[in-house]
């Protein structure tokens, strides 16, 4: 019961900020709704860069997210709660959302799976991605669609799954070999296309 009350108290603290500072609301709405497209473009960019390490990073991100989603679904079977706007009064709900089990936060899981992966593969710029993941998590509370417990649990699940996947993938000589072979065939294919265009 105490944990539940803390969950609500922290939710109110963050969600009520939207009432105190309404000028920030459009930013939080944009982040919670559209940051996912920025993440998708980044993943595509990293893959198309053709670098071996970057492609390993993308694969690690995908596998981490899949593993986190499975773990999240299992967690959702053990505990469930609806969105705050469906359970509490006077919630500053800023986006439309179908009522259902909001535990854990899927948005948070996908961002932490990929952003933690980016951080593990590149510590120099990875912190920027971690800031983005945290910001997305906070935005889900700010707009009224998730409790802090939903977000924190989603983040923890993804971080654990990503660290596990990274341990396997970063040391996988088999994956490196397959990606190198794929890269060579891909290069040959593009070379043939370039030659055909010149005729």
TrEMBL record:
Gene3D superfamilies: Phosphatidic acid phosphatase type 2/haloperoxidase
Gene Ontology terms: cellular component: plasma membrane
Domain of life according to the entry: Bacteria
Keywords, sorted A to Z: Membrane, Transmembrane, Transmembrane helix
Record-linked SUPFAM superfamilies: Acid phosphatase/Vanadium-dependent haloperoxidase
GO molecular function, one term: undecaprenyl-diphosphatase activity
Transmembrane regions: 27-49, 56-79, 99-120, 127-145, 151-169
InterPro entries: PAP2/HPO (IPR000326), PAP2/HPO_sf (IPR036938), UPP_Pase (IPR033879)
The protein's name in its UniProt record: Undecaprenyl-diphosphatase
Natural source organism: Mesobacillus foraminis
């Amino acid at each position: 019961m105490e944990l539940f009350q803390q969950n609500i108290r922290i939710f109110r603290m963050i969600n009520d900020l939207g009432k105190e500072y309404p000028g920030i609301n459009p930013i939080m709405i944009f982040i919670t709704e559209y940051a996912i497209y920025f993440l998708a473009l980044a993943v595509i960019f990293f893959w198309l860069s053709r670098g071996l390490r970057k492609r390993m990073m993308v694969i690690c991100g995908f596998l981490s997210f899949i593993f986190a989603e499975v773990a999240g679904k299992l967690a959702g079977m053990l505990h469930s709660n609806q969105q705050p706007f469906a359970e509490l009064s006077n919630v500053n709900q800023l986006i439309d959302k179908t009522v259902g089990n909001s535990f854990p936060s899927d948005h948070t899981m996908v961002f932490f799976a990929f952003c933690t992966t980016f951080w593990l593969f590149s510590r120099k710029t990875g912190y920027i991605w971690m800031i983005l993941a945290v910001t997305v998590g906070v935005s889900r509370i700010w707009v009224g669609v998730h409790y802090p417990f939903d977000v924190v649990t989603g983040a923890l699940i993804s971080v654990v799954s990503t660290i596990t996947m990274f341990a396997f993938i970063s040391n996988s000589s088999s994956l490196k070999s397959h990606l190198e072979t794929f890269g060579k065939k891909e290069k040959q294919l593009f070379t043939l296309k370039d030659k055909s265009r010149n005729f």
